[in-house]
Amino acid sequence: MSVPDLNTIQSLAVVPDGALPITPDSIVMTPEGVLGIAKPPKPCKLTFMADGLPFNIAVRHEGDGSVCQIWADLGHVPYTAQAPERRRALLAVLRGIEGLPNVRFIVQGGQKIILFSEITLEHHASPEDLFHQTILVLQEARPFLRLLAEYL
Q1: Bridge pairing between strands 112-121 and 104-108
Q2: What is the model's pLDDT at position 55?
Q3: CB atoms within 10 A of CB 122
């Protein structure tokens, strides 16, 4: 297996202007008290696997700066008719993990749970910036991924 060089990694992450998968205006509070999003994010060219989950990375350059997003599909919140106790417990866990500095857990239409992170840089994102954000996301999310896995 060949490993791409750092410039290739960076170029795969770049998306055209206005093409970031998740916009700040698209995140809302749902009636269940968790963050929600109306439409699913589009897959990106730069993906990787961590803890058995497929992650996506997107970067948009804005002038001299950049906006970097990382997200992963975690699974679905069960419907009440399927598993009412699991649904209540899962939503309680999601409500309890609000306010993390680098990661948000968002429920999109169709009850899919998305792990989401976004940073704004004052310079063009380098591969090192992407690795740094990725490590922050994984370190912050891992304990909660283990909690959520019990109910997914």
Answers
A1: antiparallel
A2: 92
A3: 8
Say how many C-beta atoms besides its own lie within 10 A of residue 31's C-beta: 6
Instruction: Give the C-alpha separation, 134 to 51, whole Å.
Output: 13
pTM here? 0.76
Cα–Cα dist 90/45, whole Å: 31
What distance in Å separates the CA atoms of residue 84 and residue 79, rounded to the nearest whole number?
A: 7
pLDDT (tens digit per residue) in 106-132:
888 778 899 999 999 999 888 889 889
Is the Cβ–Cβ distance between 36 and 98 less than 8 Å? no
Mean pLDDT lowest among 12-16, 35-39, 44-48, 56-60: 12-16
The C-alpha atoms of residue 61 and residue 144 are separated, in whole angstroms, by: 31
Question: Helix, strand, coil % (nearest 5) of the chain?
Answer: 30, 30, 35
